[in-house]
Task: structure prediction
Amino acid sequence: MSNLLEIDNLKVGFKNSSSQWTNAVDGVSIAVRPGEILGIVGESGCGKSVTMFSVLKLHDQRNTRYAGEIRFEDTELLTVPEKDMRQLRGKDIGFIFQNPMSSLNPLLTIGQQIRETVTSHRKHLPKKEVEALCIKALDDAGADDSAVWMSKYPYQLSGGMLQRVVIAIALVNEPKLLIADEPTTALDVTIQAQLLKVLCHIRDERGMSIVLITHDMGVVAETCDRVAVMYLGQIVETASVDELFANPRHPYTQGLLAATPPMVGKIPERLNTISGSVPQLSEVAKGCRFASRCPFASQECLSGDIPMFDVDEQHQSRCIKFNTIPDFRKVTA
Amino acid sequence: MKHETEPILQVNNLVKDYVSRGLLNSKSQVFHAVNNISLELYPGSTYALVGESGSGKSTTGKIICALEKATAGTVTLLGENYTNDSPSQLRKNIRGNIQMVFQDPFSALNPRKTIGDAVIEALQIRDIGSSGRERRNIARDTLQRVGLSVWHMDRYPHQFSGGQLQRVNIARALAVQPKILILDESVSALDVSIQAQVLNLLQEIKEEFSLSYLFITHDLSVVRFIADYVGVLFKGQLVEEGETKEIFEHPENEYTIRLLDSVPRTDPQQRHLLG
Result:
């Protein structure tokens, strides 16, 4: 089965005020398979959002430069004209942002905003059909009274309800790929549980693919099929979710897992944490980008760029010691 | 809950109402943000107030810290009721003993003051240290204790990361030798590896400085790690409280059960959210 989305050696550079370029994403390669939920995890500034924003080219193009390839089905997205890009946004690829309040126009009703998404891609659809599509999308997103919601303004709904609206807008055109950037981070945990259920249910029903950007290892464990862990603009490990949690083969992944307070099992005296903090991109030296914080780092880690190694066919790690490092969680416990 | 010591802090039947009056209609609406909450904090322990947005947990914290006035009910520190104290009485008896650490580490600091001066200012206000030199030394020692270096003292907040700034805020609270720290979502804005470092730090200094914590948070995995006791707030009411282990293993209240069921498990083998 061929991949729905293929990102190949993507580099995204931004220009700062003194006209210097920095690569916020530096050589990311990842594929999204049909029907899967791919989790992209990492801490703030690791490039997870920048990578997925690039798929829709949502950055200010004057201060951004792309290199590499992004293929969606048969289309090469980085070279496609803006006119065609607009056909993809909101049609074949849906997007959900973190803050529902700022994703919606406060001056338009919910109904106007969902209808707009339909009619801008299907201009000649009869009004009645548009209306029916909108109501169905809201129903699917878990709205309890879709017809009433349609006439409301954003300020009249709660954060959880608004995020359902945003999901409805993203799904109304039945996209093949949904990119969800921290879709539940701003919401209460009971609402988060409901929305994750909605997303997974729709995936099962329609067989679309979801890329879920999150910093929450719990959300990953509960929902994803596969995971890519990012650190400082690079993917450092990819594996199936079961494999990644059972057998992490990159010290950063191990550190992330160890630093998350567990909801099950024994409560540790101390959390095993990664020392230091994420360095500035401009301070990145040659070799492994995690070396300055890694308990297993040695001279050879600094000698040159580290490629991805195959732990097995479905599991890759950007660590030259992937085979020999002990499980950080057990070592420092 | 059985205790050998007296509680250090006692909250009795606390009520906070917010009254809103419309522009045109004179009929006022009363919102019970905090509705008859009672709780006790024991020396050396951590009490976590959990609940979702709007449950009244922050309001409770602010009233305990005397940043808000209660509508009814009392708060006592070591048996002394300070609910109706004047600002000068509060400064004398309460401010130095109860310190607060907020969620956003950046907005809690003055951007035009170096972090050394931020800590020194707290010492000046509380009249700790006899000279500028002594205050600077106390500030230095406290900042070093929370993991910062001497050369950090002359830097400004924008030169630090969020995790470092939260350490500064903890140091500033710690420097005035409080008995109680109120931590209002103090680790919620931090990345998980940094959050772990700060949680470990909080565990260490609790014993070292004989502190008691009131931990206000929505994150139940953090509560499970750090708290001895939990109170679950729902719409301004304390619906369940008890020892952390007991609440997590045998929740009785319907809302507590729903809340705990909604928390993602950190192990794919134990998935439960999607049913």
